[in-house]
């Protein structure tokens, strides 16, 4: 069964609302000049008038950069590019959080504490503190991430998931059109993957244009993504925004069904996935080059489902549930993409940091 996904490309709008009828070049210059009004130098951007401060950007930037050795520090251009990507993420998060607050859907302190207790349950206090230290996070950072994740989930549940209906007829029509896909010759593993490579590239293939340029950056990036997954963030959303595998990132990291014989070609991955239950994720695993079999980065896998060999019939509840979930996921992904675009379009965003870079570099 090949999972249905809709490929989207999104961009945060950063524009002044001026309607003029002039040559395009003059319009662009006029818009840039018009946006460049006085503001506090510590304000990097505003979303509907709410400021995103330099200290917040610096903290998020350093979190992604981690303790990269001095000799591997990014160049000025690379650092500016990474800061722009981090700021865009902060802008998007602020847009969504403002919408949730307007609808009284912000996660409560009780909800955050309950989720934190759940996260800490498998560890002793010392072990949990060691994990925090290793990830360069404070307890307040974790609570902030949890609140953001719970808030976004509550918003999407109300605005998207509650409005999706998959009928019995939808399920039957899909099965009849794809019956051959339900005849499995051997056990199949439906997987999703978040991949980060250490190979420099100008085409990361994800929505945030996020790319690790060396092994140190790749390690820090994949660890940051693992931390976000552990705090409850959506695997598909993180894959779309940060995975460096262009052919799957747009579909939430979904790589479809992989036969067991093929899985055994990478014993480490096979061993890790065999320990999972559907819905669980692996630890960070080394990513091997397909041709040389040498380390080329890092990956995290999610087991979506495991299907034993044989023909499946529509009367099988598992088949019905799998089809229903696929159709729901496909519609949900499409609606979420459209919804986020709508929120961006409705927000008044001023990105002063982007204007500053443009002024400094475009001369």
Secondary-structure map:
Blueprint: H1 24-35, E1 43-47, E2 50-53, H2 54-65, H3 76-102, H4 109-120, H5 125-134, H6 139-159, H7 168-177, E3 183-184, E4 188-197, H8 215-230, H9 235-242, H10 246-249, E5 254-259, H11 260-263, H12 267-274, E6 285-288, E7 295-307, E8 310-311, H13 317-346, E9 349-351, H14 352-361
Antiparallel strand pairs: 1-2, 1-9, 3-8, 4-5, 4-7, 6-7
Helix pairs in contact: 2-3, 3-6, 4-6, 7-13
- Molecular shape: globular
Please write the CATH class name of the domain at 186-308: Alpha Beta
- Please state roughly what percent of the residues sit in beta strands, choosing from under 5%, 5-15%, 15-25%, 25-35%, 35-45% or over 45%: 5-15%
Mean pLDDT figure: 83
Biggest sheet character: 4 strands, antiparallel
Please give the radius of gyration in angstroms.
Answer: 22 Å
Contiguous uncertain segments of 5+ residues: 1-36
Estimate percent helicity: 40-55%
Q: Which fold name corresponds to the CATH topology of the domain at 186-308?
A: Chitinase A, domain 3
CATH architectural designation of the domain at 186-308:
Roll
Q: Order of strands across the biggest sheet?
A: 5-4-7-6
What's the end-to-end separation, in Å? 53 Å
The assembly state of the depicted protein chains is single chain
Number of helices: 14
Structural class: alpha+beta
Number of E-type strands: 9
Order of helices and strands: HEEHHHHHHEEHHHEHHEEEHEH
Task: Walk me through what this model shows.
- This protein has 363 residues and is of the alpha+beta class.
- It has a domain at 186-308: Roll (Chitinase A, domain 3), CATH 3.10.50.
- 51% of the residues lie in helices and 13% in strands.
- The protein has a four-stranded antiparallel sheet, with helices on both faces.
- The longest helix has 30 residues, at 317-346.
- The N and C termini lie far apart (53 Å).
- Residues 1-36 have low confidence and may be disordered.
């Amino acid at each position: 069964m090949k999972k249905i996904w809709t490929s989207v490309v999104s961009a945060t709008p950063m524009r002044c609302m001026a309607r003029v009828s002039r040559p395009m070049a003059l319009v662009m210059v006029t818009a840039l000049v018009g946006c460049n009004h006085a503001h506090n130098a510590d304000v990097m951007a505003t979303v509907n008038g709410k400021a995103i401060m330099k200290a917040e950007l610096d903290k998020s930037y350093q979190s992604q950069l981690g303790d990269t050795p001095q000799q591997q520090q990014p160049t000025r251009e690379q650092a500016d590019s990474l800061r722009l990507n981090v700021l865009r993420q902060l802008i998007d998060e602020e847009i969504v959080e403002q919408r949730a607050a307007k609808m009284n859907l912000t996660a409560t302190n009780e909800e955050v504490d309950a989720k934190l207790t759940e996260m800490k349950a498998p560890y002793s206090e010392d072990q949990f503190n060691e994990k925090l230290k290793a990830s360069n996070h404070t307890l307040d950072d974790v609570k902030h991430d949890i609140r953001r994740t719970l808030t976004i989930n509550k918003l999407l549940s109300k605005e998207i998931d509650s409005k999706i209906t998959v009928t019995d007829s939808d399920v039957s029509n899909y099965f009849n059109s794809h019956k051959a896909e339900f005849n499995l010759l051997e056990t199949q593993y439906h997987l999703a993957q978040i991949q980060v490579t250490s190979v420099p590239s100008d085409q990361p293939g994800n929505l945030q244009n996020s790319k690790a340029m060396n092994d140190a950056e790749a390690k820090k990036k994949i660890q940051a993504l693992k931390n976000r997954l552990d705090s409850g963030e959506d695997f598909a959303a993180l894959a779309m925004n940060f995975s460096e595998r262009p052919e799957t990132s747009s579909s939430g990291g979904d790589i479809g069904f992989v036969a067991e014989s093929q899985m055994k070609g990478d014993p480490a991955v096979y061993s890790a996935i065999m320990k999972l239950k559907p819905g669980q994720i692996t630890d960070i695993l080394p990513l091997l080059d397909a041709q040389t079999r040498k380390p080329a980065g890092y990956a995290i896998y999610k087991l979506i489902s495991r299907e034993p060999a044989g023909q499946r019939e529509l009367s099988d509840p598992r088949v019905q549930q799998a089809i229903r979930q696929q159709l729901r996921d496909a519609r949900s992904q499409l609606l979420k993409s459209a919804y986020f675009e709508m929120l961006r379009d409705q927000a008044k965003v001023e990105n002063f940091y982007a204007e500053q870079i443009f002024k400094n570099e475009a001369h």
